[in-house]
Amino acid sequence: MSTFRFKALKETLNRTPIDFKENGKHSENFGINVFSENTMRQYLTKEAFKGVMSSMEHGTKIERKIADQVASSMKDWALSKGVTHYTHWFQPLTGGTAEKHDAFFEPIGGGNAVERFGGDALVQQEPDASSFPSGGIRNTFEARGYTAWDPTSPAFIYGTTLCIPTIFVAYTGEALDNKTPLLRALQAVDKHATAVAKYFDKNVRKVNASLGVEQEYFLIDKALVISRPDLLMTGRTLLGHGSAKGQQLDDHYFGSIPQRALNFMRELESECMKLGIPAKTRHNEVAPNQFELAPIYEEANLAVDHNSLMMDIMGKIASNHNLRVLLHEKPFAGINGSGKHNNWSLTTDTGVNLLGPGKTPMRNLQFLTFFINTIKAIREYEELMRAGVASASNDHRLGANEAPPAIISVFIGAQLTKVLNELEKVTDGKLSPQEKTDLKLNVVGKIPEILLDNTDRNRTSPFAFTGNKFEFRAVGSIANSAKPMTILNTIMAKTLKDFKIEVDKLIKEKDLKKDEAIFNVLREYIKQSKDILFEGNGYSAEWEEEAVKRGLSNNKTTPSAIKPIVSKKTIDLYKEMEVLSEVELRARHEIQLDEYSLRIQIEGRVLGDIAMNHIIPTAVNYQNKLIKNVRGLKDLFGKEFETIAKEQLDLIKKISEHISGITTKTNAMVEERKKANIMEDPEEKANAYCDNIRPYFDKIRYHCDKLELMVDDELWPLTKYREMLFTR
Ligand code: ADP
Ligand code: MG
């Protein structure tokens, strides 16, 4: 057997699970490494505490004096926990997180030193950020970038470093990260949702977006991953014949968790607890070696930070267990990929979930208002929602016969469909007393408080209502949720803003009562947006045809899917909601195009290398064995050999055909890459990578996978699917 593959398998089989022992109860450890409200109360002066809280709640600026006090207390707290360094922790447009550690230590002359951390260092830093993607913003403005403290997400200790969540912006003000636009979008949705919520309760002062992120991932032994150059370089297998047994038997989903995976999860959850990440649910997913971790939902900005942090921790903890976490959306062909379901709702500071039905007709009218406005927002901006989850890796899920489709639709279940049908019949203008009573008693009043058990679950829907929240399932497993959450909250803010204008207009000009006006506008919204509602099978060919008729987009690949980021509609929307400027949007579009081209380029190179330098030599090697065998048969049997060696001769020919297939296609792919690489326009280049280069991947893979079935297993150099998926 090929030595590298053999060694990796042996190493994997020889592992003993590395046990993990929790240190105390989760409830006792929860948040111990977070500079939380409680810790702040302990460490801060009253004045400083008030300053930070007010900044958290109202976004007010923190005075210099207060910042100094906070920094000093943070340092004391961190030092008491053995911390030596601090870092501004941010989310550049690479999608991951970034950190640059500085020691508290400072020499003060005379051979002495102290630990120092002042307000300056807390509030603002200037990382040498020239290597982060900026889409030309920094070049254009010759601006340096700086990071600035986000007090709404608490500082935390990871290892021996104090991490301070920050935004990352250019000196000219343009955002260079994923957090800044998210914060702006959350502000916008707060403003406009609060205004609408006041129709129902005057006491509402603030609306928070909530987010619960279900994170799917694969866990594979470290040695097996390292034995596959494609997994190592691109995060996914570029070739490999499917394993005879995959997920057909549904025997992994919710099955008993394998010991090594469980040990990993326990350590991971334990770390999450200390960092205040409320890790709640763990289970096996559908594909072999695929799992899910779902924390309890939190305020959206915090939830995004926690998810980003969690992804980082996952990698570190996995290596303690000789495992690798695969966060790629599609590491293995032929079995399920991974997503990151974004469960989203809006909650008032009075404790009401605006997307949850309640006990009274008024509460339910409020629920319907926010529910229908969400549907309207998705209908109006479905293309932008699709754009927000586009990436080279997520293209393998969306629009590729895999959960969910590239067409954005909304699933609401039979019960609420009926309610919307009733509301659509509401009279234009003033309602008769009879109709009002009827609506109250029979339509709005009939929505049960708990819809959870009544909503049928449609797993094929990209955007499903699940009882008291919407669940956006098209988000990729490796993505930063800030992007889709920025879009969702921005389109919601805009829709609610317009809704309020229309309702107020009807009240004023048509002399309608408030609830009459609301019913009237909701009726129109249902009419305008009901063609985004779809309850059927989202994977079916019929739905693709139907969606075209309804005028819904079906952008299957990233370059086409991200075009709407720079459409006039988006530019106007983001300007009005003050989320991103045109310059910022164009920069982001360009960064995404570049990233797409680079990722496909890397995949093309790796595939070419494996095909030419691993697969072909192996095939030739085996073919030589066959030739020797045939020669031997000829010596033995003389004339008769042709019948006796028929199968071997066929095989020799077939191997040659596949070798030739690999060679011609790889060469053709390289030629296309050469053409693409000299293109200057990022969009033209991304299109070339998408349309002219990427299609070769499957063609080359086809021949390699055929050879895998022909060549002696002993000689095959690459760890096989069955080995990666079932060796534990
Ligand atoms: P599933 O979709 O797998 O049935 P759950 O109903 O348990 O999952 O919820 C999945 C995620 O949704 C969890 O993170 C959970 O905390 C979150 N969630 C529950 N209620 C809300 C809500 N009102 N707003 C946002 N997220 C929520
Ligand atoms: Mg879910």
CATH topology of the largest domain: Creatine Kinase, Chain A, domain 2
Could you say which small molecules are bound to this protein?
adenosine-5'-diphosphate, magnesium ion
Give the assembly state of these chains: single chain
* Percent in helix: 40-55%
β-strand number:
18
What structural class results from the helix and strand content?
A: alpha+beta
The description of the largest β-sheet is: 9 strands, mixed
Count of DSSP-assigned helices: 27
> How would you sum up the global shape?
globular
Radius of gyration: 29 Å
CATH homologous superfamily title of the largest domain: Glutamine synthetase/guanido kinase, catalytic domain
The number of domains is: 3
> What is the residue-averaged pLDDT?
93
CATH domain class name of the largest domain = Alpha Beta
CATH architecture of the largest domain: 2-Layer Sandwich
Detailed description of the structure:
- With 728 residues, the protein is α+β, with helices and mostly antiparallel strands.
- The chain folds into 3 domains: 31-177, Glutamine synthetase, N-terminal domain (Ubiquitin-like (UB roll)); 186-580, Glutamine synthetase/guanido kinase, catalytic domain (Creatine Kinase, Chain A, domain 2), CATH 3.30.590; 594-726, Four Helix Bundle (Hemerythrin (Met), subunit A) (Up-down Bundle).
- It contains 27 helices and 18 strands.
- Strands 10, 11, 12, 13, 14, 15, 16, 17 and 18 form a 9-stranded mixed β-sheet that branches.
- It starts with a helix and ends with a helix.
- The model has no long low-confidence stretch (mean pLDDT 93).
